[in-house]
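Retro notes, item 3 of 5
We never archived the inputs for the adenosine-5'-diphosphate complex last cycle. Fixing that now. Sequence and ligand:
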Amino acid sequence: MKAYAGPARPGEVNLDADGTWPLAESLRSGQELLVDDITERFGALPAGSWGARPQRACVLPLHRTEGSPPRAVMVAGMSPHRALDERYRLLLRAAADQVTSVAANARAYEEERRRAEALAEIDRSKIAFFSNVSHEFRTPLTLILGPVEKALSEPEHALLGSDLEAVHRSSLRLLRLVNSLLEFTRAEAGRFQVSFEPVDLAVLTAGLAGSFQSLLEDAGLRLIVDCAPLPEPIYVDRSHWEKVVLNLISNAFKFTFEGQIGVVLRWQEDRVELRISDTGTGIPEPELSRIFERFHRVEGARGRSFEGTGIGLALVHELVKLHGGSVAVQSTEGEGSTFIVSLPTGSQHLPQDRIAIPRKHEAAGNSLSPYVLEAAHWTASADPSAPALADRDLFFQDSDVSSGWGPCPS
Ligand code: ADP
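Structure as it came back at the time:
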């Protein structure tokens, strides 16, 4: 038998402006409703196998559990040969209960499937995490073990000169890795220390971008910083904002071999928008939707370094979210990428107990941040004639910039 597809069975129903069945009314009141003018409403309905064209219908709300508000409604056409007595009502109610239980089973199955998918996703990201992290740990460990084993095989048992420096540099890289992992775990568990204060975001952001200036110039790239003064201070956690900006610029540098990197900050009434753009390798289209996922890296991406754990962008995402903002990416492979961070202005959206009195800060960019130092290694390793970096600088950071990334307190 062909299914009925007339006006009494609309594909979609707008509950607010429903001219077909009194569905909204039944949902609101939780009552069964009798509709006894269906021929006027919809014209003649099909008679079905019994040759009995329904003249009336009953709209029955479907409750998940007894007494709970209805979540759906069922419309049952009624036989013109039967009176609507108590037995008929009970039959309709029993049919409605059957539909409810079938829908509840389907929903439970669907939820179970979603849970299984979420667990599989966690499993996948755990595997990605372990393979990224073990790879990332193995490189500096190998670079430490080599000189140490060499020193142990010699009678002096001493580490000196470039061997000592290599061990030191690799230990710092390990420490930074562990710190960034701890930081990310804190973010995920919602245990981030956060303190919002009104900040001149244009000055702070321009200062952070400026710390990359000479590194970029040395690498033959142009840095364009356009952070026009903003009409009012923006509430941010300074150290978190620094991580957002530095992560994005160091990524831009990592994946850009020629052209320029732009850092543009704009006031947009209720929001302030930061755009960090590059003319680098770009991100393949199918990767864009997953780029902010933790531990996700683009397979075979061409960058200045193969190092990476895939937590940088996930951390940026968490930090921006903490500010009530959002981060998005636009990218074309072979042309470049733009990361757009948008923060609400004002402080209404922030937890009021996290708003601090503004402190006096040193201008950012006075000292090299660990991000700039690490990025400098990428050019140093690309160009063996480049001077080695003074890793000890890592110990002398502005406390805001290096918090969570510098050495452990002794
Ligand atoms: P990591 O750099 O440690 O791998 P991220 O989370 O910072 O982790 O970045 C994830 C991936 O996103 C990178 O591996 C890279 O493939 C891609 N990516 C990030 N920023 C850029 C960029 N500006 N240009 C091209 N690819 C990028």
